[in-house]
Amino acid sequence: MIKAISFSQALCQISHIDSVSKNVVQIESLSRTGSGVIIPIDDKLIIFTNRHIVEGSYQFTINVLHDVNEPAEPKFSAELVGFSSEYDFAILEITANLDGSYFNYSNYVCNNSSDSFCFTEMGFPDYDNIVKRGDNIGLLGYPVIGNNELIYSTGIISSLKYEFLNNQRTLVWIRTDAEMSPGNSGGLAIKGNGVPLGLPTYVSRESRTGGRLGNILSFDLIFQVINNGDITFSWENFVAGQVALDFSQEPEFGEVTLSSGFYPNIFEREIIAGGSNRVDHIGYDCVGFAATKPDFRLQWHGDTNELFFMFFADNDSEDATLVINTPDGNWHCNDDAFDGTLNPAIVFSAPLTGQYDIWVGSYHEGEFINGKLLIIENLDVDDQTIDWNLTPHFGVKSLSAGFLPDPYSVLISAGGTINIRESNLGRDCIGYVAEAPDFRLQWSGNSSRLIFSFVANIPSDDTTLIINSPNGSWHCNDDAHSNTLNPQVIFHNPSQGQYDIWVGTYHNVDLIRGKLLISEIDDNIP
C-alpha cells in the first residue's frame, strides 16, 4: 500500500503541456477501457483512475505515449492496489514491462532517466489557496472519439464543492465547462499553470438546453481518503454489498416536509441520479447504482390514500432506478414502472407518517442522469372534478376597465391531476388541472377586450387555459398560435363579474411555473 501523502510536497510547476502528457495513460481491462494518471510515489509508479473504469478486475494493460503526437501503445502491466468504496477512484501500481524486460522504477522518472520516455514528478498544493472559480483548466484523457490519441480540452473552473471529511474542510468536486467525453474518465485535470487538480469523473447533462458540466474528483479528496485508510482491496466484498446506502447522512439534494392535502399535490425536485454503490443486495427489484447518501428526504405527516414517488429522466433513453427507505425501516425499489418507459415509480397505500429517504440510481454503471423527482398525493382522482366554489390557490384580484399597470401579472404553478378533457367542457378544454381555481378575477367596467394569457418560464413547456366566465360558460385554449405552446383566451366586450381561471399542463404529472397575464390592450404572446 502507498504511504500517506503530504500536502507539504513541493509544487511542481509544469511549464508546457507536453511535459505532463506522458503521465496520462490508457488503461485496459477485460471489459473496459479508460484513462488514468501516473504519479511517481515512494519509488513506485502509481496510477490513479476512476473506480468504475477498473471495477471487478485486478490485472491491467497500460498503454502509454512514446510520442505525444501518436496513439498510445501497450507498455506495462499493472495491478490493483485498492479503491474507495464511497468515492469513485482506484489505485493501481505498474509492476512489469510487457516485453518481459526488467522493470526498474528509476528508469521511468524524468529526474533520474536518460531516456526521453519518462514520467514527470508532481506535487500537490493547498487547494484552498490556489484553486478559484474562473481559473483556466485543462483536461487530458483518451475519449472514445479520440481513436487512442491523447486529447486535450480546455475551459474554466465553473464551481467548487467542499465537504468536511473527518472535521477537515476538503475540496471534493471541481465543476468545469471544458469538454469531457466517454473515455476521459480517470484522466488528468490541471490548472492553467500546470497544477494537478483531479480526475475527470462524469458529465452532468441538461437535455432541454443541451447544457453540459464536467465533474472532477479532486486530489484533495483522494489523498484525504488514502491518509484516513478508507481503502478497500476486494471486489468480491464490494459487490456483495459491503457498502450500504446510508440514511444517516444528509441528503444531497435537500429535504421537504409535506402534509396530507398539500398544494399543488405534485412536489418536484431536480435530481442527478446515479452513484457508485450497487443496490441489488438490498431486496427485490433493487437494481443499479446509487450514491451512499440519500438524494432526497421527505418528512411526511397526516393520513392519505396513496403517496407516489416517481422519477422522470430529462432524456427518455436513460434508465434510472428508485430506492426508498420508509419510516418502518423497510426498503422498496423499482426499475421500470410502466410499459414503454424506463422511468421508475413507487406507490405507498396509506403511507406511514415519518421519514422517507430516497435514492435515485442509474441502471448502468458510471452513468449519471438528470431529471425530476416527483412526490404526488392521490394520483388516481377519476372521481374528482374542478370546483369554482373553492378558494383559488394563487389569489383573487378586482380590476376595472382602464386598470394600470397593464398587463396585470401573477405567478402561477400550472398543473394538477384532474384530466379536464373528461369533464366535456368543450373541444378545446384539455390538460391536467387542480380541483380549485388557480386564480380568480372580479371584473367591472366596460372594455372592448379582456385578454388572459399564460407564459411559461421555459418556452418548451406546454400549458393550457380553462376559464369559467360570469355567465357560467367555459372558454379554453391550448396554443395561442402555431409558434407557441403558451395559451390565450380573449373575451370581446367582456361581461362584468367573476372569472375563475385554471392553468393546466398538457401532460400529466407536470408542474409548470410561469405568469398569468391579464390585459385590455396586449395580445402578443411569445
Structural description of this entry:
By secondary structure, the chain is mainly β. It has 3 domains: 18-224, Thrombin, subunit H (Beta Barrel), CATH 2.40.10; 255-377, Jelly Rolls (Sandwich), CATH 2.60.120.380; 396-519, Jelly Rolls (Sandwich), CATH 2.60.120. The chain is 5% helix and 43% strand. It has 5 helices and 34 strands. The chain has helices at residues 18-21, 51-54, 127-130, 219-227, 235-239; strands at 24-28, 33-41, 44-49, 59-64, 73-83, 90-97, 136-141, 151-165, 168-176, 188-191, 196-206, 211-218, 255-259, 266-273, 277-278, 289-290, 296-301, 306-313, 320-325, 331-334, 345-349, 354-362, 369-377, 396-400, 408-414, 418-419, 432-433, 439-444, 449-456, 463-468, 474-477, 488-492, 497-505, 512-519. The longest helix is centred in the middle third of the chain and has 9 residues, at 219-227. The radius of gyration is 29 Å and the shape is elongated.
Please summarize what this structure is.
With 526 residues, the protein is mainly β. It contains five helices and 34 strands.
Features:
single chain; six-stranded antiparallel barrel; Jelly Rolls; 43% strand; 34 strands; 3 domains; mainly beta; 526 residues; Thrombin, subunit H
Number of domains: 3
Mind telling me the C-alpha Rg?
29 Å
Principal-axes shape call: elongated
Strand percent estimate: 35-45%
- Low-confidence parts: 3-15
Task: Tell me the helix content.
Answer: under 10%
Question: Which whole number gives the mean pLDDT?
Answer: 85
Name of the level-1 CATH class of the largest domain: Mainly Beta
Oligomeric organization of the protein chains? single chain
- Major β-sheet profile: 6 strands, antiparallel, barrel
Query: How far apart are the termini?
Result: 62 Å
